[in-house]
Amino acid sequence: MSEPPRILVLGAHPDDAEYHAGGLLTCYRKELDATVKLISLTDGAAGHHKRSSEELKALRQKESADAGAVIGAEYLNWDLPDAHLEPTIKNRDRVIREIRSFRPDVVLTHRTCDYHPDHRAVGQLTQDASYLVTVPKVVPDVPPLFKNPVILYMTDLFTRPAPLRPDLVLDVEPQLDSVIDMLACHRTQVFEWLAYEQGILDQVPQKPEQRLAWLRTWFQNEIAERANRFREALIATYGEEKGRAITCCEAFEVSEYAAQLDDDIRTKLWPF
Ligand SMILES: [Zn+2]
């Protein structure tokens, strides 16, 4: 039996990992006992209409740690300023250091086609780090990797200049409770800022148990379009009947700039 896989998420903000890949991360922890580490490159200090940035930064560190604890994963927010992330050499070296020290089999990140500049920057940083992690003279203080990890771009619905190619799709209905529990830890976001942004702050219930049910409905609405968008891939993966019936899914594109999914790697990393 081979070692359980190691999974690293490089997201832009605290809550991106679970919003875009919480079902897969839950599967990795529960079904494969994988070591999962989630990182938000930014501190999340911009995401609020009322709280001060300093307060928010501290709160969001705790929220991330709580969300990671739901699935037994480490969750860190780096200190780079929210909404100001740039694909600089300094940041790229930091990403290279992280990938080399954690030695992941899979890195999950955003695509460079995305509405949010921070998401695009993380995608660029990860993409640019993917070959350089093997080059010894780049960031020479950390030993290079011999092989690239697989890089998976997390679910998004953007289409320009190209839509996400669903190389891998996952029915996440069975993991939905876990995803909601993780998202619910990001209290300043799902119950405050995002609700404020959408003009539905007055609909957020006060009682904790009602909040979870409300969040579940909200999230299912948020991701409802995914299953239709990736329907063909769902049918190809799960067969006609089940593929047509799936309502909650995640989809991932294998980056062409890093390791590819050959049969061995697929068996180890995608047994779902
Ligand atoms: Zn984000």
Overall spatial form: globular
> Which CATH architecture of the domain at 6-171 and 252-269 is right?
3-Layer(aba) Sandwich
Largest sheet: spatial strand order: 3-2-1-4-5-7-6
Question: What is the fourth-level CATH superfamily of the domain at 6-171 and 252-269?
Answer: LmbE-like
Distance N to C terminus? 17 Å
Q: How much β-strand is present in the residues?
A: 5-15%
Structural class: alpha/beta
**Spans where pLDDT lies below 50 across 5 or more residues:** none
What would you say about this model in short?
The chain is of the alpha/beta class and 272 residues long. The chain has helices at 16-32, 53-71, 89-102, 117-132, 176-185, 187-197, 208-229, 231-238, 240-245, 263-269; strands spanning 6-11, 35-42, 74-80, 106-109, 150-153, 168-171, 249-254.
Tell me what the structure shows:
It contains 10 helices and 7 strands. It is α/β, with parallel strands linked by helices and 272 residues long. It has a domain at 6-171 and 252-269: Rossmann fold (3-Layer(aba) Sandwich), CATH 3.40.50.10320. Strands 3-2-1-4-5-7-6 form a 7-stranded mixed beta sheet, with helices on both faces. Strand 1 (6-11), helix 1 and strand 2 form a beta-alpha-beta unit. The longest helix is centred in the last third of the chain and has 22 residues, at 208-229. The radius of gyration is 18 Å and the shape is globular. The two termini are 17 Å apart. Zinc ion is lined by residues 12-13, 16, 116, 119.
